[in-house]
Specification:
This protein has about 70 residues and is mostly helical. The chain is built from four helices and no strands.
Length: about 70
């Protein structure tokens, strides 16, 4: 077995098979299961949540300034 792996022409196809099986495994893991799909779907808005919080904080600051002024 080790002698077979010591030849470069044998290791390239073996590496290809290992990487392909790993890739297919990752794809199946990511796209299988409804709970995971729903959780991933909820993650799509995470970048925008911070923007909304900043906008609300700024709106609150201007409202506080308006109340202080009069």
């Amino acid at each position: 077995m080790f002698e077979w792996l010591s030849h470069m022409e044998n290791t390239k196809p073996l590496a290809l098979v290992i990487f392909f099986v790993t890739f297919v495994g990752v794809i199946l893991y990511v796209f299988s299961g409804r709970k995971r799909a729903e959780r991933m779907e909820s993650y799509k808005n995470i970048p925008f949540l911070d923007d909304e919080k900043v906008a609300l904080d700024r709106a609150g600051e201007t409202a506080d300034k308006d109340q202080d002024n009069g």
